[in-house]
Each structure stands twice: as C-alpha cells, then as structure tokens.
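We read letters as residues; the fold follows as tokens. A sample entry reads:
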Amino acid sequence: MDQAVRILVTGSSGHLGEAMTRVLRDQGHEITGLDVLASPQTTVVGSIVDRRTVQRCVAGVDAIVHAATLHKPHVGSHGRVDFVETNIAGTLNLLEEAVAAGVSRFIFTSTTSAFGRALTPAPGEPAAWITEEVVPVPRNIYGATKTAAEDLCQLTWQDHGLPCLILRTSRFFPEPDDRDDIRKTYDDLNIKINELLYRRVDLEDVVTAHLLALEKAPSIGFGRYVISATTPFTRDDLTNIRSDLPAVIELRFPDYEQLYAARGWRMFPSIERVYVNERARRELGWVPRYDFAHALERLGNNEDPRSELARSIGAKGYHAASTGVYTVR
C-alpha cells in the first residue's frame, strides 16, 4: 500500500502479530494492536470474542490483519468450546464489524494444519503434494475451527463483497518440536533447516506475504494461499522423498553433507508431504527468500540462517504455566 492507512492487527502480542505491527508502523501506517496479552505492540488489551471490543477496534480502520487464534499447542490446554469461541465466533465478530464499518480488505492468517489428515498418505504411497486444491480433512479442533473460519471469510466476500485473502502458513515458530523422538534425535536448528524443504517458512517471508496480500486483496477479491518456503522438489520426486530423502537431497545439493557433518547433523530419512507455494508466488507476486538453499549458503558462511526479524521476535510462549515443550508466556 503506497499511502499510509489505519490497520487493525489482531494477535499483536504473538509471533506474527508483533512482526506485522513493527513492520507496518515502520512503513508509516497507523496500527491498532489487539490481543488478550499486553505487550509493546498491543494498544488494546481485549478479546476478539468480545463484540464491543471488536466494534471499537474496527471503527475507522481501512484494513484488518487477523492473526489472533488459539493454536495447535492449545489443544491440550483448552477445551473445544474455547476454540469455537475464539477461532470461529471471534473471526465472525471481526468480519461482521468489518462489513459494518466499510473496511476495504481482510487478511486472515490460517494454517497448513487445516489440511489435517490429508497430509498423511497411506503406507507405501508417495508423499502428498499439498496445494490449495487439496480438500482438508481436519485432524483436531484446531484444524476444524480454522477451516470453519476460512469458510466464514469466503461467505462474507460472497455476501458482502469484503475482499478476503486467506494465508495458510506453515511452521514459523521458534519453539522446539513437539515430538519427543525428533527432539532426542536431531539438533533443534537441524530440524528447522530440514523442514525448509517441505513445511517451514521464515517469519520475515510470512510478513512479506501478508504485506502483499494487503496490497492485492481489493483486486483479487477472495483467495486461499499456501505460505511456505519454496520447495526444491517436483511431483516426480514424491516417491523417492518418501522412501529415501537423503539420496534426493544429495543430488540437488551436493555440498549439504559436508555442511551437516561439520555440525553433527542429519537429514530426515523421509518426508510424507510437500507444501507448494506456487499460487502465492504467481498471484501475490511473493518471492520468499529463506529456503533450504539460502540456509545452506548462510551455514557455509557461518551465519545464522534465520532472518533478522525472526531472531529479534524470538519465542513467545503459549501458556501461563509450563506444559512441557511449549514455552511459558
């Protein structure tokens, strides 16, 4: 957006919310940050479940970036009703108040977790090629409520003409992996670099995708986009990356073994799906920088492969008390 506008960012105390408010303010936009937690980026402490709070925050804004949500880490600590109230009813509050206030665009941060059980092919089958055309099969209440919220965005666009773009983001959190066996087997950064091949994205690239979505939403109207680092794989690789991933990587990146060996790292033996960002690159003009090749280049120069923005935001935490691997707020 060339001119400064007023933008509401929900979830402004979280990973993406803080990053978005920082970048948008640096660009000269007037930002209202809404979150249930106080932070330097949050101007209104409150919940999207509270309709009056939403109405007050939406009044006078031109655009909304809706990043507030109950996440996958909350599945074990919150009830299903909590997920319905926050992820569905809260999104509906924002959409309806946006229509009433004449907001010009609405960007919804969703998740690749929405694909759910569609991400796991049957034993012996090739890895799944995950595009926006894959039909979600929810695995848990998190995925179910995010897909329902996406449908509300589409319905609002159809019924009221509010431009709504949905960004299904892959992993960008800095916390350790939630699987005990993976954490015990691999160094944390090793895990995250491996994931750039198929299911991770750097926070800076996520922010860039949202900025482009804000710019393009009025002309596009409605769309869903997978936001993940560009994979080096093609459909022709799907059988081999399911059976012998290291062999495929060695052909693509001959120097990777030396870089990994110097750190005591290993490649995963196989992967079961690949997120494909081609539509976002084509329709939004998105050019993600932080892919696997970029990470190898940075490692070769003894540099941190993460963006400066990701490093500065750091870990946020999800819970008021420790639940194990997930950090405390």
User: Anything to note?
Assistant: The first strand starts at residue 6 and ends at 10.
